[in-house]
């Protein structure tokens, strides 16, 4: 899908992108050699082919066609990331790409657990991203506030340990932190891992003055129950400020009013869903959320693992298939600004 010049030139904001999901085969190849990590691929082409993943996180659902699941490929990619410089380069590559797409402001997700469980010190991850956050402003005119993600398929205690270790890099209520992240999220495999399992973690983050979001991925098992918990139960219904994905809100009465009354926005990633939903099925659902007045915005999720469709490609898809006007596309960006956690000065500078 060719990017229309209007979409290319539109100033953009991205609120749903996993930094580890922007790792290109080229950088992965380079870091594998630099860090002396043997890849299970003999050639660069074989490596690039490993990015062709299946949609569902569960192998038994995909059938065994030999392709890795998304999460298998994503965590395999993480293995080349070892030093502070590696994390810095990963983030700077993304910021460069963001700059080229006229993305002005980003709230990237990061996992520390994906790295500490391989023996990488959390400081390497956090300092690498912190340096990129600082340098991207001058170098690429891209500002960012980051989101620490709990891996929901790991134990709560493990997530709490990771959170406590990362807290000096947060922008906490007392103003003492290093300012890398200002929010927490919930990612990885949602199967049998409802949001309420992480209630304690979200309460803690809220006490620390951080914002809260969580993934409720599309068409997962118990998707509407997970959404119901996220909206009505986490911190007694005053917890989550956004939901990542959340397309299943249209499937149960009461969810859309719950989103609207609390001002909970949805960070949608249309291409991720388009991989397995027909055009004429998917885009009317997005259109319906829009028509019902839910604050939605458009994002890329894990672009290098999703056919290299970045935020501009995702915006093109809704422009083309939802029947949105140019003014609507501007409103989508304004929605992102509104539901972002940028400070007021940054918000006015973005658009
Ligand atoms: C993710 Cl697509 C997706 N689903 C769940 N967790 C994730 N982490 C990064 N991308
Ligand atoms: Zn995501």
Automatic annotation (TrEMBL):
InterPro entries: A_deaminase_dom (IPR001365), Ado/ade_deaminase (IPR006330), Metal_Hydrolase (IPR032466). One of its GO terms (molecular function) is metal ion binding. The keyword Kinase does not apply. Residues 11-351 form the Adenosine deaminase domain. Keywords: Hydrolase, Metal-binding. One of its GO terms (biological process) is adenine catabolic process. One of its GO terms (cellular component) is cytosol. Its cofactor is Zn(2+). It comes from the Eukaryota. It holds the Pfam family A_deaminase. NCBIfam families: aden_deam. This is Adenosine deaminase. It comes from Talaromyces proteolyticus.
């Amino acid at each position: 899908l060719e990017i229309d010049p209007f979409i290319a030139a539109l100033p953009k904001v991205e609120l749903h992108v996993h930094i580890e999901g922007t790792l290109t085969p080229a950088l992965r190849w380079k870091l594998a050699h630099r860090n002396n990590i043997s890849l299970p691929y003999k050639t660069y082409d074989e490596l690039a082919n490993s990015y062709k993943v299946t949609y569902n996180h569960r192998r038994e659902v995909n059938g065994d066609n030999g392709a890795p699941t998304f999460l298998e490929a994503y965590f395999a990619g993480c293995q080349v990331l070892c030093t502070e410089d590696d994390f810095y380069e990963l983030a700077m590559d993304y910021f460069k790409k963001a700059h080229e797409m006229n993305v002005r402001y980003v709230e990237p997700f990061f996992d520390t657990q994906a790295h500490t469980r391989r023996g990488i010190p959390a400081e390497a991850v956090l300092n690498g991203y912190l340096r990129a956050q600082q340098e991207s402003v001058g170098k690429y005119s891209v500002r960012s506030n980051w989101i620490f993600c709990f891996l929901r398929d790991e134990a709560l205690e493990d997530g709490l340990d990771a959170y406590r270790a990362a807290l000096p890099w947060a922008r906490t209520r007392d103003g003492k932190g290093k300012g890398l992240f200002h929010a927490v999220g919930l990612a990885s495999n949602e199967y049998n891992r409802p949001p309420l399992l992480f209630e304690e973690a979200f309460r803690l983050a809220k006490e620390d003055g951080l914002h809260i979001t969580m993934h409720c991925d599309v068409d997962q098992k118990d998707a509407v129950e997970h959404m119901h918990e996220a909206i009505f139960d986490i911190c007694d219904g005053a917890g989550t400020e956004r939901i990542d994905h959340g397309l299943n809100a249209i499937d149960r009465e009461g969810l859309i009013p719950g989103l609207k009354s609390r001002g909970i926005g949805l960070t949608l990633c249309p291409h991720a869903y388009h991989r397995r939903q027909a055009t004429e099925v998917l885009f009317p659902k997005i259109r319906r959320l829009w028509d019902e007045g839910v604050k939605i915005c458009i994002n890329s999720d894990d672009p290098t693992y999703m056919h290299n469709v970045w935020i501009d490609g995702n915006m093109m898809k809704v422009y083309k298939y939802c029947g949105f006007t140019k003014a609507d596309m501007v409103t989508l960006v304004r929605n992102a600004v509104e539901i972002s956690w940028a400070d007021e000065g940054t918000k006015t500078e973005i658009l």
